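Appendix B. Worked example

We walk through a single record from start to finish. Start with the input: the chain for Benzoate/H(+) symporter BenE family transporter, Lentihominibacter hominis, length 410.
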Amino acid sequence: MGPLIEPGKGFRDLKADWKCSSCSIFAALTSLVFVLSGAIPMLASVANSAGLTSRQAASFVMCSMAVGGIISIIASLYYRTPFYFAASLTAIVVLAPMFEEFSIAEMVGGFIIAGVALFAIGATGLMGWIGEHLPLPVVLGMVAGVFMSYGLDIVSSIIKDPLSGCIIAGTFVVFPLITKKVPPHIIALTAGIVCAVFIHGSSFSGGFDDGAVGLSYPYIVMPDFSGNVALTVSLPLVIMALADVFKGYGVLKSNGYDMPLNTVTTLSGIGSVLAAFGIGHTISLAGPVIAILAGKDAGEKKTRFVGAVIYCCAVMIVCVLSGILIPVIMQLPETVIDLICGLAMTGLLVSSLQGAFGAGKFHMGALAAFLIGLSKVTLFGIGAPVWAVVFGLIVSLCMEREQWGKEIQR
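Next comes the structure step. The output line below is what the pipeline stores for this chain.
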């Protein structure tokens, strides 16, 4: 059993390391648009289908995001790494039927058990051991496959909305010819807002009723551990949270960061337990957001944590003012959002493909992981990221035994 908190740079010299640039602001803004237009509406949809009251729904969304935001700020500053912990989006697909089967108190009990399990997995050092023995090309193949859909969204968005698509993608491609001082993603984001207003007629004047405006507060629920919540609720959530951890691990690895796997899993467990009392479900790494915050377009590698901290502070504000801000951002057209987020993923796609197939080893395992990740297949309630790594390892062990032998000798 290793230390609960693995060594990091700490909080010393933080003032000297803190350098905010336009790239940091871009990464934070793009990530915020991504979450406001995707994650939070998805959480709200689950809360609505589960029949939660307005206060319970607000708490469900707030605690799922805010607890992760606090942990993210601390971890990003301590490790100088762009972390983002949030509610596991892969778990959303199974939450709605769970709420139909169990009471809110029982669901909270299941969330707490899942958090304790994640804490135990991290504290025992199991995640670190797995990470040390996983071939990196296989992990990066999974990342490239899972996130390739964002790249494909660029093409489909241009086809669906040719005028806006050509303007946004065109500014992204052409603007570096004019100047490289401003990241092209900032220009693409600006062009997207202009297209939303002048082409799609978004007024950004509100779009919500008066009852939706107001501050959000946690709605505390005491847990009920009766029934089979541990097996039906906790186990699937733990598996999906671990899949998110490995996805985030692959994203950070592809951008040159050494992630403390044990500590991240431990923090996910702690955050999950804290969020559970406010009806928030399991907290884990949010791979798509980390891909934006940790990418090369977010600035120098040593200062990318700044964008993560700025973004997490913005998320905390959004959680409290969600009734005002979310309806406004939701007026952005879907094609514009998909295009902006897809362009933000281009750096990750390039680096992960290079790491998967340019390393000169484990090509077949990486290819299997890539194809399964791209397929988005779900078996026994377990998503593609897990199966991509599992079958990628199996293929590699069967077809690349000589390379495994060399790695073992090292």
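Two observations about the output. Residues 15-148+203-332+346-409 form one domain. The two ends are 24 Å apart (CA to CA).
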